[in-house]
Amino acid sequence: MPSPGSYIAAHKERFVQELLQLLRLPSISADPAFSQDVLETAGAVAQALIHAGCDNVEVCDTEGYPIVYGEKILDPELPTVLVYGHYDVQPPDPVDLWDSPPFEPVIRETELHPEGAIYARGASDDKGQFYMHVKALEYMIRENKLPCNVKFMVEGEEEVGSVSLEEFLKANRDRLSNDIILISDTGMIARDIPSITTGLRGLSYVEVEVTGPNRDLHSGLYGGAVANPINVLAKMIASLHDENNRITIPGFYDKVVELSREERELMAEAPFDLEAYKKALDIDAVHGEAGYVTNERNAIRPTLDVNGIWGGYTGEGAKTVIPSKAYAKISMRLVPNQDWREIMDVFTAHFEKIAPPGVRVSVKPHHGGQAYVTPIDHIGYQAASKAYEETFGKTPVPQRGGGSIPIVTLFEQELESKIILMGFGLDSDAIHSPNEHFGIWNYLKGIETIPYFYRYFTEMSRG
Amino acid sequence: MPSPGSYIAAHKERFVQELLQLLRLPSISADPAFSQDVLETAGAVAQALIHAGCDNVEVCDTEGYPIVYGEKILDPELPTVLVYGHYDVQPPDPVDLWDSPPFEPVIRETELHPEGAIYARGASDDKGQFYMHVKALEYMIRENKLPCNVKFMVEGEEEVGSVSLEEFLKANRDRLSNDIILISDTGMIARDIPSITTGLRGLSYVEVEVTGPNRDLHSGLYGGAVANPINVLAKMIASLHDENNRITIPGFYDKVVELSREERELMAEAPFDLEAYKKALDIDAVHGEAGYVTNERNAIRPTLDVNGIWGGYTGEGAKTVIPSKAYAKISMRLVPNQDWREIMDVFTAHFEKIAPPGVRVSVKPHHGGQAYVTPIDHIGYQAASKAYEETFGKTPVPQRGGGSIPIVTLFEQELESKIILMGFGLDSDAIHSPNEHFGIWNYLKGIETIPYFYRYFTEMSRG
Question: What is the pTM of this model?
Answer without folding.
Answer: 0.72
